[in-house]
Amino acid sequence: MRKGEKRKQELLAIAYRLFVTRGYENTSVDDIIEEAGIAKGTYYYYFESKEQTLEEVIGMMIEEETETAKQILASPIPVPQKIAAIISSFRPAPEEQSIEGALMRPENTLMHDKIREKLYETAVPILSEVVKEGIKEGIFSCDNIPERVRMLLVVSSDIFDEGRFTKRDIDVFIDMTEKLLGAEPGTMDFVRGLIRKQKKK
Amino acid sequence: MRKGEKRKQELLAIAYRLFVTRGYENTSVDDIIEEAGIAKGTYYYYFESKEQTLEEVIGMMIEEETETAKQILASPIPVPQKIAAIISSFRPAPEEQSIEGALMRPENTLMHDKIREKLYETAVPILSEVVKEGIKEGIFSCDNIPERVRMLLVVSSDIFDEGRFTKRDIDVFIDMTEKLLGAEPGTMDFVRGLIRKQKKK
DNA sequence: TGCATTTTTCGACCGACGGTCGAAAAATAT
DNA sequence: ATATTTTTCGACCGTCGGTCGAAAAATGCA
């Protein structure tokens, strides 16, 4: 009963690496068991299906990111910086995202979507807290906070997930953020400084 | 050479119906050829792959919708109404969307994503024209129009594609649209009247 | 220690799937 | 009537996710 847990963690780690580097669809169960040096039956002793494995892998990823986000929430930095930091804490790490053939796209639709879904689920409440904080400070002013926060996340996914965006995208995103949250123009300008050089397409 | 075209159109029609009602992933090539009453080889005489078939099916869909959208663009209705009409012309028709087990979701990620991608590609330029028109009329005021339009589409996809949204979502969406385009508050209020009763989740 | 029970591992096997191919049949040109 | 091109056929292939009964380890118990 103890050995089992180790096995599962080991398999999860392998699956995670493979899914992230080659993509979910391009990773077969046979790939996983070959790397683990086990038989098919053993794999299915620990997982109901390949998809359930994906679910658990995603669970792990989000858990880590949620941890980071909560720390940021509790930290004493200014509210606008918190927003930016939390949003970017939920983006795929550079090593996972584009650095190498690692594909968060284009054929990894399924994985990508499941991640997004779960991410919204956990990120919206946290970011909503920050926005409330901002409202108390008088720096933001808006209603329907969770809905607004979600839209922010949806747009930032579209812009940033694939790594290719232009200066104009950033300008509009900043403008939109300020207006959605009812902040003074310029409040989110500092974001521009955080963006690393990106390909324009 | 004439007969061939008919065949292909026939296959395309069958594939379209099957993809839309059962979903792409849940439709096998065998399903298609069985319904068409032909052999596997014949299918692959007309299509390179199942995915290419999907590509062509999507092309057909978007083409129709683009037609509608362009007519709206050229029609003499007020600019804000044009915006709303064009955006909704690009949404899946009710029959295709939720009416019956027909699934635009949840496992149809691939199809859904390809549709979205192609939709942005064609809808952004058209909507940008409308926004420019609005700016000329003095009803809108903004820069970076294509980027703003895309964000509008991205958000509306997220909200409307699955058919389940709340009144709050609508409120925020309207507010966001007005602010993104630099319109007077209330300019897009009429949209509320266009929304049919929806499930709240 | 020996035996029973539970946990873990194994790999042959399965059905479904997307796709290939050589050759027959149908249509068309000469 | 014959030659050529277009269309159709279906057996066959490799891969994939998943199943299953039985063997092998590990553990509980006397």
Describe the structure.
The structure is a homodimer of 201-residue chains. Chain A has helices at 2-22, 29-36, 40-46, 50-74, 79-89, 94-99, 109-136, 145-160, 167-181, 191-194. Chain A folds into two domains: 1-47, Homeodomain-like (Arc Repressor Mutant, subunit A), CATH 1.10.10; 51-200, Tetracycline Repressor, domain 2 (Orthogonal Bundle). Chain A is 70% helix and 0% strand. In chain A, α1 (2-22) packs across α2 (29-36), α4 (50-74) packs parallel to α7 and α8 (145-160) packs antiparallel against α9. The longest helix of chain A has 28 residues, at 109-136. Chain A contains ten helices and no strands. Chain A has 201 residues and is mainly alpha-helical. At the A-B interface, α7, α8 and α9 of A face α7, α8 and α9 of B. Chain A binds a DNA duplex (30 and 30 nucleotides) through α1 and α3.
